[in-house]
Every structure is written in structure tokens, then in C-alpha cells.
Amino acid sequence: MNFISKTNVVAAAVCAACLFSLTQTQAGEPDPRYGIHDRNRPVPVQVDPGYPGTQDKTGKAPQGAVVLFDGTNLDQWVAMDGKKTKWIVKDGAMECVPGSGYIRTKDSFGDCQLHVEWAAPAKVEGDDQGRGNSGVFLGGDRYEVQVLDTYNNKTYADGFASAIYGQYPPMVNPIHKPGEWNTYDIIYIAPRFDGDKLVSKAHISVIFNGVVVQWDRELTGPTGHHERPAYRPHDVRQPIAFQDHGNPVRFRNVWIRELNQ
Ligand code: MG
């Protein structure tokens, strides 16, 4: 091998090393500001995780969450028109008073983890969609994660508890008996609009009593009964709402953590 060819081999090796290095730093780099195991990278803040609720005792929100209902009052909530809600607080739970209308938060939220515990009436009345029906709405009153007593209750798949109503049935139905507490952890990514143009759709995941039942579902638009309306532009930040569907469904330990915080 002469000098030139040796140089070429070395140059090729250096280039290969450079390419390998570039591949290492560019392909799938989580954050170009920090190398792997960089001790200058900011570490996660330690927070009190609270504790989950049990059938006998309500849970406690993690540190840093916005507590929307801690069992004592409805200070964070109003009727949809902004007036005082007629829902009541009883035995540490907020309860839907049939005929009083939806309830919503005073504040608005964007992309978030929303934790909700709910219980259908212990005394089973009605059937199908008329049994322990309520709903957790994201994006104001647009996107419903169904609340329904589907414990041995026949109904349509995309109307089951934890269904994204009218769009996606849950993968399974890990529901507790009527009167017992269920837990939803909902991860919501709001749709994005550029003026009137839809840029990205809403995405929802749901963990139902510890079981992933909805994973990153892309919504077709707002949820509806016998309809799938098209998206209409709205601000990212919207209230959270619970549905009055004519049944005295109860809620407790409601908290929210906005993402990207
Ligand atoms: Mg409903």
C-alpha cells in the first residue's frame, strides 16, 4: 500500500468514525443540548406522589397537581353558563343532581393528565345507556370519555365506561361493581388549529382502574350521539366538564397536572 492509499484508508476511517459519531448524536437524540448521562442536565424535581384511593378511603393528589375536588367543596366548579352549580357535595363526593345540567371547572387547561374517581349508584336502576351514565369531558364539552355502569350491563361497545364516546371502545372493561369507586387517569393532548385550519387532532389515552384501555387514540372530532361532528377551531386551554345524564353519579379526588410543566 503506497502513501496515498494509506492516507485514503485513514481518511475513510476518520470519515466513518465521524459518520458513526454523527449518527450517535443526531439519530434519535433526546435533547441535543445534553450528551448521554450528562450530569449537567437538570434532574427531575422530587415530589410527594400522594397515594391512590381505596374503596374505603379517598386518595391524595400528587404534589404540584391542581386539586379540582378534594371532597369538601365545589369552589373550582360552576354550571356551564358560569352560574352556581346545583350539584351537591355529600360524604366527601360531588354528586350529580339529575336535571341540573353539566358542571365545569372555572379554570381552563391544555394538554394534561386528569385523575378522576367515580362511582355509579349502588342501587341499580335503568339499563343500557340509562344506568349510571355521566361523562368526563375534555376540551370544554367536546370530547367525552364515557362514564357508565357497565358492570354486567349490555350496551353498545363505543358507549362503554371509558369509551371515547361514539369513536373508540375500551380494550377491556375493568370496572368495579355499582357503588364502588373506579379510577380514570386520562392523558389528553388538545387539538391544534392555525386559524380555521386543523393542524393536529386531539389524542386521548385512558388508564381505567390501573389498566390501559385507550392508548393514544386520535379523535375524529368532537364526540356525539349518533354523530361524529368535524373539528371546529378552539383554544387549546378549555374547562374540564362532567356530564349530567340523569343519574346521580358521584366523583371524588379530582386533580389535574398539565403536561410540559
Ligand atoms: Mg355519558
CATH H-tier superfamily = Exo-inulinase, domain 1
CATH architecture: Sandwich
Structural class: mainly beta
**CATH class group:** Mainly Beta
Shape: globular
Termini Cα gap: 60 Å
Contiguous low-pLDDT stretches (5 residues minimum) are 1-25
Strand content: 25-35%
Q: Cα-atom Rg, whole angstroms?
A: 24 Å
How many β-strands, per DSSP? 15
Oligomer: single chain
Calculate the mean pLDDT score and round it.
Answer: 92
Helix share of residues?
under 10%
Describe the 3D structure.
With 261 residues, the chain is mainly beta. The protein has a single domain (3-258), classed as Exo-inulinase, domain 1 (Jelly Rolls). Helices cover 9% and strands 28% of the residues. The protein is built from 1 helix and 15 strands, in the order H-E-E-E-E-E-E-E-E-E-E-E-E-E-E-E. Strands 1, 3, 4, 6, 9, 12, 13 and 15 form an 8-stranded antiparallel beta sheet that branches. Strands 2-5-14-7-8 form a 5-stranded antiparallel beta sheet, with no helix packed on it. It is globular and about 60 Å long. Residues 1-25 have low confidence and may be disordered. Magnesium ion (MG) binds at residues 133-135, 144, 146-147, 243, 245.
Give me some keywords for this one.
261 residues; mainly beta; binds magnesium ion; Jelly Rolls; disordered N terminus
